[in-house]
Amino acid sequence: MIEFEHVTKAFHGKAAVSDVSLNFARGAFSVLVGTSGSGKSTTLKMINRMVDFDSGIIRFAGEPVTRHPVTALRRRMGYAIQSIGLFPHWTVAENIATVPRLLKWPDKKIHSRVIELLELLNLEPAVFYQRYPHQLSGGQQQRVGVARALAADPEVLLMDEPFGALDPVTRSSLQQEILRVQRAEGRTIILVTHDIDEALALADHLVLMDNGKVVQQGAPDTLLRQPANDFVRGFFGDSDRGIRLLGLYCVKNLVRLGEAPSGGVPVSVALSLREALSAFIQQARHVLPVVNGTGEVVGNLHLQDVINQGVTP
Ligand SMILES: Nc1ncnc2c1ncn2[C@@H]1O[C@H](COP(=O)(O)OP(=O)(O)OP(=O)(O)O)[C@@H](O)[C@H]1O
């Protein structure tokens, strides 16, 4: 859906992005991750032409972005950033409605979309609808920023550290919301983060950048299991790689269905194997019962199977 071919951008003679070729597939959740100053934000901003590039081609829906009128291009791409950029004299509802208003949606449709998004992002409409940005916490402002980016159902969502100022609990629930929206609606999302665990939790397609270049890209599993070089190995923390790998899989993948339930506090099918490993350690057990979404015991999880998952592809 979005393709980069040999794209280069320099600021004051110094390359920020060098000869980058990438393909962000339609409906995929792509994540740009890397060291500070590696060119992630610049890469993102070149997609909606917030930053012009010096050479190469970037295509959106088959056409070079330079041939799309800037305003039309930006309306097709939601954009959410850490520093939020909410309009201070507009209420939360007016901020969220920015693009629907530009698109001249009827008032009723705008109102119901704003309510829907407030609920989606856990902001009680009765409390937040009429508030102004200065009356919100940093995390609430960020959620309004995400709601605004989603408002007009853009084909592509560009997000630059959108969960940066959130506490770990809110951050994790917002990550799950975004994943749910992306899976349910097949939305194309490109997200920049320097948080490795966030990147691994969200990405279908992970792009690791360093010094303006793409060092390795692919499925998170591939980068963890087959790091292209020492930089990639080091970036994911050599000693944490096994644990991070377990974070990519769910208990559901390994449950031995129909076994007589073992003792111990059950783990849910939806839990990651990383969290399940922690449950084994906390309970000092080798086998734990597994429950499905309705709390019914469906089988067991064996510690040995979890360990094997970290070894076998
Ligand atoms: N507007 C600008 N003017 C001058 N230099 C810039 C500008 N924007 C970015 N740069 C430089 O380009 C390089 C890449 O910056 P970029 O913001 O893309 O990196 P990043 O990977 O997103 O970093 P971070 O994770 O720290 O936000 C950096 O060296 C930065 O200083």
UniProtKB/TrEMBL annotation:
GO function terms (MF aspect): ATP binding; ATP hydrolysis activity
UniProt KW keywords: ATP-binding, CBS domain, Nucleotide-binding, Transport
GO biological process, one term: quaternary ammonium group transport
Domain CBS: 260-313
One Pfam family in the UniProt entry: CBS
Similarity comment: Belongs to the ABC transporter superfamily.
UniProt-recorded name of the protein: Osmoprotectant transport system ATP-binding protein
Source organism of the structure: Mangrovibacter plantisponsor
